[in-house]
Design goal:
Residues 985-1015 are annotated as: Disordered. Residues 692-885 form the Elapor1/2 mannose 6-phosphate receptor homology domain. Residues 97-263 form the Elapor1-like galactose binding domain. With 1031 residues, the chain is mainly beta. The chain has four helices and 69 strands. Strands 7, 9, 10, 12, 14, 15 and 17 form a seven-stranded antiparallel β-sheet that branches. Strands 33, 35, 36, 38, 41, 43 and 44 form a seven-stranded antiparallel β-sheet that branches. The longest helix has 43 residues, at 931-973. It is flat and about 180 Å long.
């Protein structure tokens, strides 16, 4: 590079003048420029003829300023003198940078890529189809703006810049409030296409509210600055739409992009139309309404009285004559019991009522009696409605004290709209990109003091009471949102609700809004939003959580929201007319609010709002009153005592908890003993498709949760994101909370980390710009289930049904289909109009007797968990989802005898598992006899024992019979039968002491064989007598 510059200088100065057709040139015939920088950062200033003119008197080359030199903002570099000069009025300069804020076409150096985010084919059983990205979506230049229109594709806006010194890129952007479905990342890459991960991390750390000068805010607008290194840089703004999450139809706006660190600025840039500037300015100031300016103006001119202009206008427009639609009625406050309506001009007031063809301001309506107040209120001495005092209630007329043993039910019940009720405020807010105060504040290096320009949306009240409803104000202002704010500073308290626990969330309040909208097309929207920063000490910014959205025309309908926290809250109702995103508002669009009802307003023992009724207090066994019934109990209508819900029923948390009808039955296959939650404990009986009965045991699933990762979606840069599911079949609940550092995400990082709690939820995992490529940011939690509704063997439940394709039955016939049991959960309301019945989850328990471990997965046909965005399906494959075998559902098989041991196996039937002791494999000692032989020997032994016992019994019986027979004979003859043989043999000695004779009577007890028998003559009944006593 250095030698090429020397060669150029040599050719200009050394080549003979005669080689050219030369002429004497003036300073208008040539211009100065710099050569390319060498490796030492040096360059030369040379003169180059204009339009091919050949000059004989060109100035000699001169060493130029260092390549890293640049002027201060508001100045430009004059190459003639190589000194910085201030910009003229009507012009501006960044010094050493360039600004992009007028987008007629995509500026030079920018490019847009819209990439299909089709799911990876390896996760799908079907061939992936490329989705054609819409041409009018993603990053586009439309109506003079650089905007992102939501698209299912990944859209990347890139800009290439060669920095001569370290600099920065600074951009002002606006994310839509409902931006949870969108994530924007800024990626910086060098000439080797390497991402500045460490630099990006450092940049995002600065946004953690540590350095205020790195971040400026005004409403929804944000300004970010990212440091850049010298050399080639590619800056990319990448936006991806999280699949399955309802995205806002509002675009992302980029107001302007400043790139600093470029080569010197040779001339200042003219201010755009509708702006002006003084000398040496780095900014152009927009013109206020009623003023105008052309391009390059030093100041804004005032419009004539017969004309008007909007903010940042290039020209003025004639004021039209007033019409009937240019006036609207407003109810005056009640005075002395009467009220009337007066008419006002629609703001901003641009019509003329002094023309002959103009409609004049209508007169006030006649006075009429004031209607009664809203429930919970009464009129004071001035006729103004105010809330009843503590322990009093009202139906809208006069307040009365609550009876004994009752408690007032404080709340807000707005039905009459004569005036704006308490706790409600209105405002309008610009959503157009051109109205940000960020554009007009002093730059750190600016040498001029620029006054702040007020861009307040001044249309008066954004919502107007009209007697029977609250109406969005008619306005000719364009690009605005009509906002109605409900502030509950006291928080919520339900005096009769049980105290919540970690495992049970008790609703404490209910918000209900009755509304309708009338719109020209579907682009209008009515949003219900919760400001999560309410009640946070020191919070200066709002963190919005979208609750619901309704597009297009809606006939009179009701929207409700359950509050589960006692803390203060702030809710917003925002109405956006058709065409608002492009600044072409349909001024005839209108929204009406007919009623707002908020229950249980106030803190413990304190009052919030007014009471329209008094609730009867339950009585406890100890005699206490106004003590909430325990969880799972309801109040008896007659005795006022707390009674437990019947078995297998639970208390409806949103009911009054009065009467047994407050208890609702558990679903099929579920039981409850506490009246709080339905679950499955132990074995349950379920009917199969053929009406056969199966026994299941789901107790191993209680208290467990599982994590599932969905299919990965790859962008062209190689980064991937996926959905992450967390599921629990039975209580307790699980909690899904966003996990990311403040430097991870743009747009989402400005908001509080959102969390949901229930039985199942889903989060989106996004890669983060850190050196640790395995780290993911988990954002946009989506609640999928709060309560298990039923356990059944039916694939249909309510309005939901599962197809053969989702259940993967296509490859099975009716006889080989797996045995499935379905865990159906209650639908969860969603803001998506594509799912009118809400999101619903079903877990398919698939019986696989050989799979001992539980495997949770997503269906092959729906690799991201859902095929329609509403019904989510998870397949759980395990042996624990099989029916439990009964005693006749399995058989026992003995194994071979090895080492003196024999194994006994229990073999179940198909789709059946054995539990308990029967499921254990047994080992017993081996025997030399077979089972038949052992049985025969056993029978033989038992028979012999039985015969022996019988023989003994018969012998004993014979002896008794013989004795009885002898006695019988004696009793008939009186004599003993004759002796057939002698008691002594011939060889025996006849011993006196051993001789006996028989006699009538009983036999006496012998004393000894050697003892002589006593004389028993006195006893004729003696059985034996001595022979010596015969005489």
């Amino acid at each position: 590079m250095y030698w090429s510059n020397i060669l150029l200088i040599f050719l200009i100065t050394i080549i003979p003048q005669s080689a050219f057709q030369q002429q004497i040139c003036t300073d208008q015939d040539y211009e100065f420029t710099y050569t390319n920088c060498d490796e030492h950062g040096e360059r030369w200033r040379v003169a180059v003829p204009r339009d091919g003119v050949q000059c004989a008197n060109l100035p000699t080359p001169k060493r130029g300023l260092n390549c890293s030199f640049s002027c201060e903002p508001g100045h430009y570099l004059d190459l003639d003198s190589q000194h910085c000069r201030p910009c003229n009025p009507g012009y501006f300069s960044l010094g050493g940078g360039i600004r992009y804020e007028e987008f007629v076409t995509l500026p030079s150096g920018f490019s847009v890529d819209n990439m299909d985010s089709t799911q990876d084919t390896q996760y799908s059983s079907q061939q992936s189809r490329m989705v054609e990205c819409p041409k009018e979506a993603g990053w586009v230049v439309k109506d003079g703006e650089l905007i992102y229109i939501p698209t299912p594709c990944v859209s990347r806006l890139s800009f290439s810049a060669n920095l001569v010194r370290p600099g920065s890129v600074e951009f002002t952007y606006r994310m839509p409030r409902n931006n949870r479905a969108l994530s924007m990342q800024v990626d910086i890459r060098n000439e080797q296409c390497q991402s500045y991960n460490d630099l990006a991390r450092s940049m995002f750390q600065k946004y953690a509210k540590k350095e205020k000068d790195e971040e400026e805010r005004n409403g929804d607008w944000r300004k970010r600055r990212i440091e850049l290194k010298s050399g080639p840089n590619v800056i990319s703004w990448i936006i991806q739409n999280n699949l399955g999450y309802q995205a806002s139809n509002q675009p992302i706006h980029i107001d302007r992009i400043d790139v600093l660190g470029l080569a010197f600025t040779r001339q200042c840039t003219a201010c755009p139309p509708g702006t002006s500037s003084i000398g040496a300015s780095a900014e152009c100031i927009p013109c206020n309404p009623g003023y105008f300016s052309s391009k390059g103006s030093a100041q804004c001119g005032r419009c004539p009285e017969s004309q008007y202009s909007g903010f940042k206008s290039e020209k003025c427009i004639d004021r039209p004559p007033c019409r009937v639609s240019d006036y609207y009625p407003v109810r005056e406050p009640c005075t002395n019991g009467s009220s009337r309506a007066v008419y006002k001009k629609v703001l901003p007031s641009i019509c003329r009522d002094d023309l002959d063809s103009a409609t004049k301001l209508p007169p006030p309506t006649p006075w009429k009696p004031c209607p009664k107040c809203n429930p919970g209120m009464e009129k004071n001495k001035l006729g103004v409605c105010e809330f009843c005092k503590k322990d009093y209630f009202s139906d809208g007329n006069s307040c009365a004290r609550c009876p004994v043993d009752t408690v007032p039910n404080y709340g807000l019940q707005y039905q009459n709209w004569e005036v704006m009720p308490p706790k409600l405020t209105t405002r309008c807010e610009y959503i157009s990109e051109g109205l940000s105060l960020l554009n007009f504040k002093l730059q750190p290096k600016s040498t001029s003091l620029l006054p702040d320009v007020s861009t307040t949306c001044n249309i008066g009240d954004a919502w107007l009471p009209s007697g029977d409803s609250l109406i969005s104000a008619p306005s000719l202002e364009l690009g605005i949102a009509f906002e109605l704010i409900l502030s509950i500073d006291e928080g919520f308290w339900n005096p009769l609700a049980p105290k919540p626990s970690k495992t049970m969330k008790v609703p404490v309040a209910q918000i209900t809004v009755v509304f309708e909208t009338s719109c020209a097309d579907e682009s209008c929207a009515l949003y219900f939003i919760e400001d999560m920063s309410a009640g946070t000490k020191g919070a200066r910014e709002s963190f919005y959580h979208f609750l619901a959205a309704f597009n297009g025309t809606n006939s009179k309908r009701v929207w409700s929201h359950t509050v589960i926290k006692n803390t203060p809250a702030r809710f917003m109702l925002a109405f956006l007319r058709s065409g608002v995103s492009s600044g072409e508002d349909r001024i005839t669009d209108e929204a009406r609010v007919y009623a707002i009802n908020v229950t249980n307003v106030g803190h413990r023992g304190g009052q919030g709002g007014g009471a329209s009724q008094c609730l009867t207090c339950p009585h406890t066994a100890g005699g206490e009153t106004c003590v909430p019934c325990p969880a799972g109990n309801y109040m008896h209508q007659v005795t006022k005592l707390c009674v437990s819900c019947p078995v297998n029923t639970i208390v409806n948390a949103s009911s009054s908890r009065v009467g047994v009808e407050s208890c609702i039955p558990c679903g099929q296959g579920l039981t409850s003993n506490d009246g709080v939650s339905c679950t499955s404990q132990g074995k349950i009986q379920l009917k199969g498709m053929s009406n056969e009965s199966f026994t299941y045991d789901f107790s191993p699933f209680v208290g467990r949760s599982w994590n599932i990762s969905g299919v990965r979606v790859f962008s062209r840069e190689g980064s991937a994101y996926f959905h992450f599911f967390t599921i629990s079949l039975f209580p307790p609940n699980i909690k899904c909370q966003e996990q990311f550092d403040n430097f991870d995400m743009i747009g989402i990082m400005d908001q509080e980390k959102e969390n949901v709690e229930g039985l199942a939820c889903r989060m989106t995992a996004l890669p983060t710009p850190t050196s640790n490529h395995s780290k993911n940011a988990y954002v946009t939690p989506l609640l999928m289930a709060t309560r298990l509704d039923s356990i059944s063997t039916s694939r249909k439940h309510g309005n939901a049904s599962l197809t053969d394709e989702v259940l993967e039955y296509d490859s099975h016939d009716n006889t080989s289909r797996p045995l499935d049991v379905f865990f159906w959960f209650d639908p969860v309301p969603t803001i998506s109009q594509a799912c009118p019945n809400g999101n619903q989850l079903v877990v398919v328990g698939r019986c696989l007797p050989t799979k001992k471990q539980i495997e949770m997965r997503l269906p092959h046909s729906c690799p991201d968990g859902t095929c329609d965005g509403c019904l989510f399906v998870v397949i759980m494959e395990t042996a624990e989802a099989c029916p439990v075998c009964e005693s006749n559902d399995y058989e026992t098989i003995n194994g071979e005898c090895k080492n003196g041991k024999q194994t006994i196996h229990s073999i179940p039937k198909k789709h059946c598992v054995i539990t308990g002791a029967a499921s254990q494999t047994k080992e017993v000692a081996c025997s030399v006899f077979s089972a038949t032989q052992r049985a025969f020997l056993t029978i033989l032994v038992i028979s012999m024992i039985a015969l022996s016992i019988a023989f003994i019994c018969i012998c004993r019986r014979n002896r008794r019979l013989e004795y009885k027979y002898t006695r019988l004979i004696e009793s008939h003859t009186g004599e003993l039968p004759a002796v057939e043989t002698c008691g002594l043999d011939e060889d025996d000695e006849d011993e006196d002491e051993d001789r006996v004779i028989f006699s009538k009577g009983r036999r006496s007890q012998p004393t000894n064989s050697r003892t002589t028998l006593r004389d028993h003559r006195e006893n004729d009944n003696a059985a034996f007598i001595s022979l010596d006593s015969e005489d």
